[in-house]
Amino acid sequence: MPLLSNCPTSTCCKSQAITTASICPTAHANSWNEEKKKYFKVEKSSTAPSASTWSSDAVKRRKVEHQASEVVRKRDWELRSHIKRHRLWEHTVASGTLKREIRDDLSWEGGDSLKAAAWAGGLEAKGEVRFGSHHRRSGHLPCLWIGGQEQGLETAVAYTSRSSLFQYWDVPRSYIKIVEVVLTGGSAYSGGRRNPVDDDGKLSFREDVPLDSPRRPVRYIESTRCSQMSSISYHQASHRILLTSREPGNPLGLNIFSPPRCRGTEGPWILGEAANHQRISFSRLWRHDHVALNTCKPAPPSLPHLICAIATDSGLVSVATDESVSLITSHNPFRSDRNRNRTHQHTRTPRDVFDLDFHPTNPNIIFSGGRQPRVWIKDTRTPPSEPCRHITHPSSVARLRAISENQLLVCGPQSAMAVYDVRFFPTPQGGGRNDDDNAPPRPRPGPLLAFPEYVNGAHLAVGFDVSPELGIAAAAQDDGTVRLFSLATGRRLACPAMEARGKMGMPIKSLMFQTVPGENSQSLFVGEGLWLRKYSFGTRELDA
């Protein structure tokens, strides 16, 4: 196509709806090429090739087509104000309920997202209780466990650690206090007192009342040799509280104790009087004690021989009911350039693990993730040296949860939060050498669902919990806020109660969903500073 230089006239128009001769005298008998941003010379159709785009007939045909499309576009622009959407569709719950009612079939694909949006929209603050009376604060509650209806308790109990918040002059450094707070009352171990809970489930504790007042929170203290506590969990089958620590140098092991009961094995817990504190030693697994225990996951009831699985910075460890300890993954030696096999071992098994979870239907399968940007699958029935299947995650794995039989939710720094299908994890080939340089590259499985509104720049110790029953994931952001996400769509759910908290500056470290005895739905508990805040579904005002 014969092209001419750009028009020297700076004020000439480049619209195709007006002829170029009327715009720019220097471009007479020329036409504008929108793609190349230049004028080209128009040739007569009698001399130009039949398929040419610079012939006069082709230019006229394009001009007519452009004018027709402009007429259609202008009409659509004028009619846009004639189409109005009802304001009902701006409300997620109301519009979703209407869609469900007008459908003929019984199955509705938007039911899960509607349920999650309704719960998040109706969430309200239901009171708070404070751990301790000190005013000096250095951060949020480092870890949290709440026992409730799922554990068969008549009274909800909250466990946390104050070791990273305070230092007590009257307590030796080797003893760290664990505070236990009764959230709902009605048990014999507290002297027949009932802790105040309103009819709508709101906690009404007060610190400015006498010590014998029923409105004063009931606190109990358990002292244990476990500093820098990283996690608190409960194994229901053996009735043991499990404590892990990140402090190096201390005798390495899992700290456990069992709260005594009032009436045999089924009575209420007697808090603050546990005398059977013990430590299950891990010294035979490693030659040194500089191993941090990051978290602990109690074994499900379908594994009666196992107490828990533990994530450490040297792999995965299991603790049996006879208190024997074994490696789930082989110990990764320190990287050495002189031994290529040792170096290669870092790519086959997880190391520096931050979180783990059991498969919902097959508890012999364990998911784990840590500092490496990978999500691992390990079958506990295989030898520890057996390579693990894995997929690549955009960042390190801070927290993960198995939300269904085939789906795994993973979150970490760099605002990376996604759902993966565990059926597409590649299987190692050639005896586990899945990193062979000569092998053809395999397609990497991507996430099923992404969470673009999750914000976490560089934090690993962040609060995170999932409620598959509600279809909601609660995740702490790096600015101190807590956001709720839908497991069906990955979108952030509008929650006025959480938005009213504001930004706290530091990320929340402990979150937990739990059903309080006497209530029908789950509540979200947030460890904010020294306070444990409760958020439940409810409405302040009901229309008559």
Automatic annotation (TrEMBL):
> For the region Disordered, what residue ranges are annotated?
427-446
InterPro entries annotated for this entry?
A: CUL4-DDB1_E3_ligase_receptor, WD40/YVTN_repeat-like_dom_sf, WD40_repeat_dom_sf
Query: Keywords in UniProt for this one?
Result: Repeat, WD repeat
Q: Does the keyword Repeat apply?
A: yes
The domain of life for this entry's organism is: Eukaryota
Ranges annotated as spanning the membrane: none
Q: Which GO terms describe its cellular component?
A: Cul4-RING E3 ubiquitin ligase complex
Q: What is this protein called?
A: Uncharacterized protein
